[in-house]
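The aim of this short unit is practical: by the end, you should be able to scan a pair of folded records and say something sensible about each. We start with the first protein, listed as its amino acid sequence and then its structure tokens.
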Amino acid sequence: MRTPLADSSRVLETIDERLKRSGISRRAFLRFCSSLMIAAPFGLAITDLKTPEAVAQVLGKVIRPPVIWLEFQDCTGCTETLLRTSHPGVDDLILNIISLEYHETLMAGAGTQAEAALAQAMHDYAGKYVCVVEGSIPTRDKGVYMKVAGRPATEVLADVAGKAAAVIAIGSCASWGGIPSADPNPTGAVGVADLLPQKTIVNIPGCPPNPYTLLGVVLQFAESGTLPELDAQRRPKFAFDRNIHDQCPRRAHFDAGRFVKQYGDHGHREGWCLYKMGCKGPDTHAGCSTRHFNEIPDVWPIGIGAPCVGCTEKSIAFRVPMFQTVKIHEVTPPDTYAPIYTPQGNISPVATGVAGLIGGALVGAGFMASRKLGSAGDSESESKPKKE
């Protein structure tokens, strides 16, 4: 099987060949494929309507995709989320499933050695490597606020991404500016797509995003040379196809009108809805509510009792105040619902009088009915002839 990467000047192994040579068990690879399917149950060509065995069969024949990873204005949180995947571990994931050619945070070399590795990778895989960008790019004052090997980040991005076969912006910072672009944005931070208008960019926002979303996009491109379907914000639909509020495990509390009013209160300890604490879930598209991090249940903000900050939405995260509520779309706000707990108080005198009248009428009616029945019975007994 030939892929877009098969003609590289430097020969790369298939994933199967690499796994066997490295002593990685088939079971471990199947667990990885299962995790990939959970992250992308549909909408991704390599996992759509397949079993883990079928996914492994397809991916095993894929040439390991060379990846050049650039880091700009960031906290390395997106790199950290990649390192924290459990199936397989970081060494298996990075060194065996993808071919990470350059990553200044993870590589052993530094300085001139690192720059030589970058130049070599760009030469060997020109037009065939995947460029992953982490962090926003400063543009103010000719990009002086961020330099790599003496070059502004804008120049490095144009050079490396310009020769790439695919460009992926991982994290909210690379997707649209993220935290560095928050007002007043002193460095003029922007996302990758703002500087490469002619390139097809895949945005994977999140702070951080789920690492399997990145792996799914990279591996589909390596297998077929295609990218998954994107939404209007260039996000893969398979990962950003759902509203967090619709599938939030606390949704029942929202519908019932049970809200946390203060951290540590009774509702917070009971796991009630965090909407009134500023949760942005009703206006945020991401798979966090069903695809948790590190393959561990409840490892996401709402799962640990914190409201969603809308980190995948350009118009919300780091722009809307943390405790400000967002508009509810296509859902009747719970303030209009009947209360679960009715207040206890004194009975109104008017209500008492009305109840007394109704009760008296019922008693009187019953008494009159009993008299009539009794009279009817006496008349009937008198009409019958007596036996002698």
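Turning to the second protein, read its sequence before its tokens, just as you did above.
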Amino acid sequence: MKSKLLKGILASALLCATLLTGCQSATNQVVIYSNADDEAVTAMKNALDKNGYEGQYIFQTFGTSELGGKLLAEGTNIEADLVTMSSFYLESAQDQNDMFVDLDFDTKSIEEYPNFYTPITSQEGAIIVNTEELKTNQLTAPKSMKDLAKPEYKDMISVTDISSSSTAWLLIQGIVSEYGEEGAKDILKGIYSNAGAHIEESGSGPIKKVRTGEVAIGFGLRHQAVRDKTSGLPIDYIDPTEGNFSLTESVAVVNKKGSDHQKLAMKMAQCIIDHGRKELLETYPNPLYDGETSSSAYKSAYPKVFKEKLTADLLKKHQQLSEECKEK
């Protein structure tokens, strides 16, 4: 009995020591919060691990809305030291909480960005089609976002839900920009009716259904369709006449009042840009920095920027507009 009791005490002591060691180790690591896709996370981790930072960070991923909510609610009290996130959310969080420090390295970006962040990826929207399914169903390929509301596409299209994926915002920006909010409502009602059960939570959801032939048409990320077509799949992409709107995801360093974590996080941010972009370009091919190039296939026909500044409040406004257009 005493032997069992002694073993139990020793086991408990060992467990406590292990937990304390683990906690101590965790506090010595840079915490990275990200809304990035798996491919981007892998590229960033590879850049860090291959350049001396393996074991010095913890990487946690969130949905865009979830992470955005944390940034706005927690400010500098957030656990993260380094954040990769949709740029408009970073700007909204900075405006509200003044929570990021200026980057201390020269990014050499093609476009100008605020001093506290620099982009890691850029993504554009486009219409995506399965050419075989179009033929099988005797459908003419759409030319515009408005066309997606045509009754002949009933149950044949897939789109994303803006309440869960920012990819859908690329569609809604285009419709609102071209037809105004009231005109956009009529078009969105038709699109959602046509999509039915094919309104997806993930930005990659529509192209997955187009690939399998479950639907003939989707709206999603342009670079994914270009890559599929290049690889020989019966996939094509159409730049909608309303425009190819885009979103960037960027890296920012949380203000930890000059702590060692902040300094290390800054070095990791630079590492991701200096050493991660080559792999990132394989999945997200839009050039962002001096010296980067891409094939002509990745250059959209109608690149556009929304007339209003993209903010968390504007996203919420368009989310409400979207909800009003869904069948109850």
